[in-house]
Amino acid sequence: MRRRTPIARKLILDVDTGTDDAIAIMMAALHPELELVGVTTVNGNVEVEHCTDNSLRVLDFIGRGDIPVYEGLNRPLVRADFPVPRALKKSSGVHGTELDVPPAVSRKQSQAAVEFLIETYRAATDEITLVPTGPLSNIAACVALDPHFVDRVPEVVLMGGAHDHGNVTPSAEMNIWADPEAAASVFAAGFRKLTCVPLDATHQALVSLDDVAELEAMGTPAGTAAARFISLRIAGYDANNPMAVRGAAPVHDAVCVASLLDPSVITTRHLHVAVETQGTLNIGRTVVDTHFRGSGKPNCHFAFGADRAKFVALMLETLRRTAN
User: Fold this and answer.
1) Model confidence over 172-200: pLDDT tens digits?
2) Residue 122 and residue 110: Cα distance in Å, rounded?
3) What pTM value is reported for the model?
4) Which residues pair with 229 in a beta bridge?
5) CATH for the 9-319 domain, from 3.90.245.10, 3.40.640.10, 3.20.20.70, 3.30.450.20
6) DSSP string, 10-74
7) Contact yes or no for 323/63 (Cβ under 8 A)
8) Hey, is 245 helix, strand or coil?
9) Residues annotated catalytic, as ranges
10) What would the pLDDT profile of 45-59 be if each residue is shown by its tens digit?
11) Coil, strand or helix at 303
12) 32-83, pLDDT tens digit by residue?
């Protein structure tokens, strides 16, 4: 009997590329069980025009320049800038404005990201998972502009937030902190299924220098690019994070994509999660009601754990592939 080929799971990535977004893009674009419908970009790790350029560079480098890229919002929904101006935010050295791959040949689409998202979900006949791995500005704009957007999205799997510790402030993670009003709107929107992959999980799925050597030895475009990007991440964490495991670093956004391929990569609890938008100490904090002390009903599958071995194996397996 001929083995049936699994139907590819469709997804859209909303990114602020960035080194870890780049790994997520490559995994989504190359794995045969995934169909990357499009990439939308948002202001985040770097300014949105650089996020767009980096996304195009990565897709071209791995031979997937056919995947369209749509540029999104260049600022938070409410604030004139991040809660702390960008220039005052200490750089961790793990991203860089331009990723170390050749300049893009392909070009961004003329349609704006929010318009693309709304129209794509309005016209969809198949389910398309939405995977935001940057600030949630584009997604919140869709929620505000289209009253049916939430009903049309079957599942959101986002990278962001933290329960145990932040990475911009003691309590806030970058993606949520960068546009807390947008994040608050998305968590409260009522999506059918919302999965959050926070720092608590991604810091359990570290990629080591030994893994980087294996990526480099593959000889594939994706393996070569990933080795460069993750080497930069490891050097940045070693230099700037006194709590980091030496010679290893998280590749946050790629964990979201891996969880689509194997849900057991992450371990979640169904809880109520809200985002703090006031004050100075806690702004951008994801408030996770782990002991059911609040009145909110569970609205989020929040990942407290991740399986490093499964994640790394999936990443290595996928990045060995080529577009052909």
Assistant:
1) 999 999 999 999 999 999 999 999 999 99
2) 19
3) 0.95
4) none
5) 3.90.245.10
6) EEEEEE--SHHHHHHHHHHHH-TTEEEEEEEE-SSSS-HHHHHHHHHHHHHHTT-TTS-EEE--S
7) yes
8) coil
9) 16
10) 889 999 999 999 999
11) strand
12) 999 999 999 999 988 999 999 999 999 999 999 999 999 999 999 998 877 6
Q: What are phi and psi of 140, to 5 degrees?
A: -65, -35
Q: For the chain, which residues make up each domain, given as ranges? A: 9-319
- The torsion angles phi and psi of 134, rounded to 5 degrees, stand at -135, -165
For residue 115, what are its two tokens?
Answer: 């318009």
Look up residue 198 and give its two tokens.
């926070």
- Residue 228 has a CB neighbour count (10 Å cut-off) of 18
Q: Confirm if 202 and 252 have CB atoms less than 8 A apart.
A: yes
Q: Are the C-beta atoms of residues 49 and 73 closer than 8 Å to each other?
A: no
Give buried/exposed letters for 180-217 (b at 16+ CB in 10 A, else e). bbbbbbbbebebeebbbbbbbbbbbbbbbbebbebbee
String of DSSP letters for 110-172: SS-HHHHHHHHHHH-SS-EEEEE-S-SHHHHHHHHH-TTHHHH-S-EEEE---SS--SSSSSB
How many Å apart are CA 254 and CA 202, to the nearest integer?
9
Q: What is the mean pLDDT of the chain?
A: 93
